[in-house]
Amino acid sequence: MTETTLCFPRRTRESTGESIEEVLLIEKRRGLGDGLYNGPGGKLEAGETPRECATRETREEVDLEVDPADLEKAGELTFLLDGERHSVCHVFRTRSFSGEPTTTAEARPTWTPVDDVPYDQMWDDDHLWLPGVLEGNTVVGDFHFEGGKPLDEAEFVEYDLKWNVSFDE
Ligand SMILES: Nc1ncnc2c1[nH]c(=O)n2[C@H]1C[C@H](O)[C@@H](COP(=O)(O)OP(=O)(O)OP(=O)(O)O)O1
């Protein structure tokens, strides 16, 4: 069973007297979820904590610096494939970062208004939990996929969510 991370940098952009709430999404350019929008993230390496992984993946994928200590844990998502636990994903958000997001071989970043998140171009489960995470809630979820590998070609069949949980880390 694999542990993975997702990191959602947030900012408020002022434009002609209006405050626009934005989230940094990536269009993934290779690997699991290729072609889909998501937050930066990926698999934990040996000896790494989820926060360290989210920081490294955000740097590697879009060249943005976030500090592990500034990441707020927002979710823990278990993805199951044909009844077996496939991966557990630690979801973080932060308003603290430095640098400008840059396109890399792995990902194309876009600051996206939270009201315009392209859920129809994301994993089928994202519209169930990401809006709540972007509103500041915490969530634990199980998401069941069936009928084939890899996960991004399997069918999303059912889910269970618990909101406003507290995380120890
Ligand atoms: N169902 C679903 N919804 C939303 N996000 C995800 C899923 N399944 C997932 O795996 N994910 C996320 C979790 C991770 O951030 C990525 C997949 O990461 P990973 O397996 O590491 O992908 P690769 O790019 O192939 O590998 P590395 O970057 O670690 O080399 O998607």
UniProtKB/TrEMBL annotation:
Its cofactor is Mg(2+). Residues 45-61 have a biased composition (Basic and acidic residues). Residues 36-63 are annotated as: Disordered. Monomer. Belongs to the Nudix hydrolase family. Its EC number is 3.6.1.56. One of its GO terms (cellular component) is cytoplasm. Residues 1-135 form the Nudix hydrolase domain. It catalyses: 8-oxo-dATP + H2O = 8-oxo-dAMP + diphosphate + H(+); O(6)-methyl-dGTP + H2O = O(6)-methyl-dGMP + diphosphate + H(+); 2-oxo-ATP + H2O = 2-oxo-AMP + diphosphate + H(+); N(6)-methyl-ATP + H2O = N(6)-methyl-AMP + diphosphate + H(+). It is an enzyme of class 3 (hydrolase). It holds the Pfam family NUDIX. One of its GO terms (molecular function) is metal ion binding. Keywords: Hydrolase, Magnesium, Metal-binding. One of its GO terms (biological process) is DNA protection. It comes from Natronorubrum sediminis. Oxidized purine nucleoside triphosphate hydrolase which is a prominent sanitizer of the oxidized nucleotide pool. Catalyzes the hydrolysis of 2-oxo-dATP (2-hydroxy-dATP) into 2-oxo-dAMP. Also has a significant hydrolase activity toward 2-oxo-ATP, 8-oxo-dGTP and 8-oxo-dATP. Through the hydrolysis of oxidized purine nucleoside triphosphates, prevents their incorporation into DNA and the subsequent transversions A:T to C:G and G:C to T:A. Also catalyzes the hydrolysis of methylated purine nucleoside triphosphate preventing their integration into DNA. InterPro entries: 8ODP, NUDIX_hydrolase-like_dom_sf, NUDIX_hydrolase_CS, NUDIX_hydrolase_dom. CDD domains: NUDIX_MTH1_Nudt1 (cd03427). PROSITE patterns: NUDIX, NUDIX_BOX. It comes from the Archaea. This is Oxidized purine nucleoside triphosphate hydrolase.
